[in-house]
Amino acid sequence: MDYTAVFVPITSFIVLAYIIKIVSDNRVRHRLVEKGITEENAKILFSKKTESGSMSSLKWGLVLTGIGLALFIGQLFPRSISEEMTVGGMFIFAGLGFLIFYFVTQRMDKAAIAGKSSDN
């Protein structure tokens, strides 16, 4: 199997998405400056991003583990169906990674809400 045929489009998509994110964040910051938002208020608006860094690592760790698992399992099948199984498995396992992340964050949010209500 020619892995470059799979990884080049995926890598290109990731790089393009990251560039779009950088440009979008830059435009938002410029608009905030134009509106006269102070640095303190801007930090409050963007503070959620820094707090979720470990959660982002968990999400992408689960997704990439799923894709790696699909690549490994795809090699176990005969050459005639290996490529189709690998590509399909990558989508399935990446989706499962996102679903696991969703349920983990839901459980953590419920625990945080329960912790805040018990503090009162």
Structure summarized in a few sentences:
The chain is mostly helical and 120 residues long. 90% of the residues lie in helices and 0% in strands.
Description:
This protein has 120 residues and is mainly α. It has two domains: 1-47; 52-120. It contains four helices and no strands. It has helices at residues 4-35, 39-51, 53-74, 79-119. The termini are far apart.
Number of strands: 0
Rounded mean pLDDT score: 81
Element string (H = helix, E = strand): HHHH
Largest sheet, in brief, is: none
Number of separate structural domains: 2
The number of helical runs is 4
Question: What is the rounded distance between the termini?
Answer: 59 Å
Give the fraction of residues assigned to helices: over 70%
What is the subunit arrangement here? single chain
Compute the CA-based radius of gyration. Answer: 20 Å
Percent of residues in beta strands: under 5%
Which structural class best describes the helix and strand composition? mainly alpha
Q: pLDDT below 50 for ≥5 consecutive residues: which ranges?
A: none
The coarse overall form would be flat
